[in-house]
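PROTEIN–LIGAND DATA SHEET

This sheet pairs a single protein chain with one bound small molecule, zinc ion, given as SMILES. Inputs appear in the order they were entered. The predicted three-dimensional arrangement of chain and ligand is reported afterwards as a token string under its own label.
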Amino acid sequence: MTPLQRKLARIAGLIVALMFVVPGVLHPLQNHPLDLVNLVFHEAGHMVLMAAGETVMLLGGSLFQLLIPAVCIVAFVLRGDRYAAGIVTLWLGQSFAGVSAYIRDAPTRNLDLLTGDPDTHDWWQLLGGWNALNLAEPLGRAVFFLALASVIVGTVLALWDDVQ
Ligand SMILES: [Zn+2]
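PREDICTION REPORTED AS:
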């Protein structure tokens, strides 16, 4: 492969990644394949932090589904692979969007939960316990902003070495 071919292949890969991830950012928790991946890490987060008290355990699910892609991004950046870091940042964005949708769902609890019991809704328990269910919408919107920011940062990072 010539350097130009390699550059074009990387840009094509980024476009495919964006076409895959962006629908999952705009319509989170609607059976996007990445939602399943995030769910695995989400549930693992609850299990890992089970012994750390109820609040931390409840937060742990959302935290872990963000932490795992974040750790991968840091690992790729440390290796100097900005392209891979950028692609994984798109995944982080999609995971942020999922957490955002989960937070916003807290007052109404319309989402189908793994447990089948709406009373096990993480963010309903957290925000409800703090008497702060009215914060679900602004907090969810702030997290969604982070989702969009991640997609932009990821795209720039992935293009960094090829567009200059
Ligand atoms: Zn959970």
